[in-house]
Amino acid sequence: MLAAGKGERMWPLTSTRPKPLVEVLCKPLLEYHVEALKKAGIKKVVLAVHYQEEIMKKKAEELSSKIGIEIKTVKQSTPLGTGHAVLEMIEKESILEDIVVLYSDIFMTPHMLEKSIKKLSSSTDYAIAAAKVPDVSKYGALLLSPSGKLLKIMEKSKTLEGKEGLVNAGMMMLNAGDLSEAIRRTEPSERGELELTSAIELLTKKIDISVLELDGEWMDVGTPWDLIRANETSLKEICREMKVEEEECVIFDEQKITIEDPVIINGPVMIKGNAELGPCAHIRENTILCGDNKIGFSVQVKNSIIMKGAKVPHLNYVGDSIVGERTNLGAGTITANVRHDGKNVKSMLKGSLVDTGRKKLGAIIGDYVKTGINTSILPGVKIGAWAWINAGCIVDRDVPDRAVLKCEQERKYITREEDKT
Question: Which of these, 273, 222, 313, 236, lies nearest to 5 by C-alpha position?
């Protein structure tokens, strides 16, 4: 499994955790993948790690014991691309047989992920999984022969914008020997990396690779707003499985919740672990609380992920946002989530302002952040881990990790007319 990347587009959540450990419904992506692999009959998992290697190793040991499957970690010596990571896993573990390669940043609901891996691993042909998406320009398209065999993997391109088609779903079943040989023959990309997709294209000249279209919704969880969408989808799926109407679907352990009335909860909502709610709190649809949370006096939370230990205690509005672990929002901190012109919210990614595809998107706040009273955060703004925001700030652009944001106020005092002599 490919789990070595830094996940720069997922910043600030990846300042404090590797990307495979970002959570859907308060559970790491990696855990969903390992569970699905075990249920699909896979007996050994090899993880390529690099960024925050020790955290990944510790999590791998924990999951191996918890799920009951062998997990080995292989440190990618240098982050030189997905093909390079796969090659080092094959060589260091002396793998010769057929293997399933899985990207760690894809997400499907647990049942569909297990079904997809089973479908792929039981294929009589070497195969790559494909997902149908409405706009292939964001991913790069798969070109197929009339018989359904892979011909080419096209790169991301604006020329493909708005075109529906099949994309690489980040799952494939290939022979380790054939794949490693193809990777060795692959020329580095413009970024100087060995791309797995380029190696697979080389492989198609030697063997037939079938394209298996997946059922169910598939997501590339590459950005924080992708993570919000994955949580929305997963929560609704659980409610459907429980055969409960979404508005009435409120999942929590009564023994772990303290409610100081009045509190209104409109489902679907999930609360995992301990939480203090109220008074006069309103928890709205698609909200996830991950435990040890406080949603306090006159607070409204809607369609947001409140991570473990985060506090939203007084007079706050949090909409379509992510609030990181152990973050504390000062009284009156507000996240704006809609533009005046009604257009999609934009956000900065690696130095460029991009369309998030969402009409509503609030703030993405990293772990261990503290905001002062009456802080206002504009739509799509990200606040780095460990940052402090001083009282009264209007945060209209991203704040780096560990920064202290001071907002100067011009002050002018005059004497009242009646006090003049």
Answer: 222
Q: Span 354-383, mean pLDDT?
A: 98
Partners of residue 269 on adjacent β-strands: 250, 287
Q: Do 137 and 16 belong together in one domain?
A: yes
pLDDT tens for each residue of 124-141: 889 999 999 998 888 888
- Same structural domain for residues 170 and 254? no
The b/e string for 333-371 (b: 16+ C-beta within 10 A; e otherwise) is bbbbbebeeeebbbbebeeeeeebebebbbbbbbbbbbb
Please check whether residues 152 and 29 belong to one and the same domain.
yes
Flag whether pLDDT at 411 surpasses 90.
Answer: no
Please tell me whether residues 211 and 252 are part of one structural domain: no
- φ/ψ of residue 305, rounded to 5: -105, 115
Q: State the pLDDT at residue 312.
A: 98
For residues 273 and 126, membership in a common domain is answered with no
Average pLDDT over residues 363-380: 98
What does pLDDT average to over the chain?
94
Q: In which domain, by residue range, is 329 found?
A: 244-405
Is residue 268 reached through a cis peptide bond, with omega within 30 degrees of 0 on the bond before it? Answer: yes
Whether 318 contacts 247, CB under 8 Å? no
The yes-or-no verdict on residue 419 having pLDDT over 80 is no
Residue 26: which of 261, 266, 323, 353 has the closest Cα? 323
Assess if residue 419 is contained within a domain. no
Compute the distance between CA of residue 330 and CA of residue 396 in angstroms, rounded to an integer: 17
**Number of separate domains in the chain:** 2
Closest of 22, 214, 232, 35 to residue 114, by C-alpha: 35
| 235 neighbors 287 (Cβ within 8 angstroms) | no
195 plus 259 within the same structural domain: no
- Is 60 within a domain? yes
Task: Examine the domain organization and report whether 67 and 169 are in the same domain.
Answer: yes
Q: Is the pLDDT of residue 231 over 90?
A: yes
In a domain, 414, yes or no: no
Domain with residue 189: its CATH number is 3.90.550.10
Omega within 30 of 0 (cis) for the link into 279: yes
The pLDDT of residue 421 is: 61
pLDDT digits (tens, 9 = 90+) for 141-183: 899 998 889 998 887 777 777 888 999 999 999 999 999 999 9
- Say yes or no: 74 and 198 in one domain: yes
Q: What is the dihedral of CA 175, 181, 187, 188, to 10 degrees?
A: 70
pLDDT band at 47 (very low <50, low <70, confident <90, very high): very high
